[in-house]
Amino acid sequence: MATPSISAREAEVLALLGEHLSNAEIAGRLFISVRTVESHVSSLLRKLQLPDRRALARHAAASARTTGQAGPPPALPAPLTAFVGRTRERAELAAAVRAHRQVTAVGPGGVGKTRLALAVAGDLAGEFPDGVWFADLVPVADPVRVGAAVAAAVGVGEQPARDVDDAVLAALADHDALLVLDNCEHVRDGVAPFLERLLAACPRLRVLATSRARLVVPFERAVPVPPLSRAGGDESDAVALFMDRAAAVGWPPGPGASAGVVAVCERLDGMALAIELAAARWATLGLDGLAAGLGDQLRI
């Protein structure tokens, strides 16, 4: 009997079913809708001629044991809050990743580079058959350890008598995938040479980096990440973010507070992290307290 042919995405869904995840959890891991997961599950049941998702989970576990393969690498970090605004920036960064093999989202700390990069990586995930990986370089103190951080992110273990950078290059050589490198600024001296080797050895790999400064490599496409737009007053992206985060703590600002919220977002220069921190304090400080606290950095 011929082996059923399943797509790369169906294989990912099947592997996650083997981890006994719900459809909603699978959707979050793969950045697809629950309805799309349901469609893949139905297709798997039909192709594999199995009666229910429990049988799919058993099939996935048995296949993993037989082949000796580990499950899929960790997915993109699941944000705890909704992504707000930045329609134009999101589209521009996605277009840059499609057009260039190495793109750096550049902007000051707290402007929202990581959230934008994650949103774009999620948008593009379906275009990379071998997946999307995320490596946070914040814990990396030594530039020579950049390769080790990437190895951990993509699931490449230590190999005797083999340099970890070489192991990563060999493992990813044939992968059509996207690698997100977050917070590169403090280890740029390690990121730049590593990326040069990685992209030369892995012709179908693309890299989306975030950094407070350009990586200054010949193949880099830098895309500036500006503060959130304050254009449009109470209809702006900055105000939308404040309203969303303030509502999350249980006290959404009413219509009468819109002018004050606009003023707060202006005072914070549209910086996403500062707006989120201010919104989190809305319930306890109120508008007057926030306005007063903006002159006292320690209070805010």
From TrEMBL:
GO terms for biological process: regulation of DNA-templated transcription. PROSITE patterns: HTH_LUXR_2. GO terms for molecular function: DNA binding. Residues 1-64 form the HTH luxR-type domain. InterPro entries: nSTAND1, P-loop_NTPase, Sig_transdc_resp-reg_C-effctor, Tscrpt_reg_LuxR_C, WH-like_DNA-bd_sf. This is Putative transcriptional regulator, LuxR family. It comes from Streptomyces sp. NRRL 11266. The lineage of its organism: Bacteria, Bacillati, Actinomycetota, Actinomycetes, Kitasatosporales.
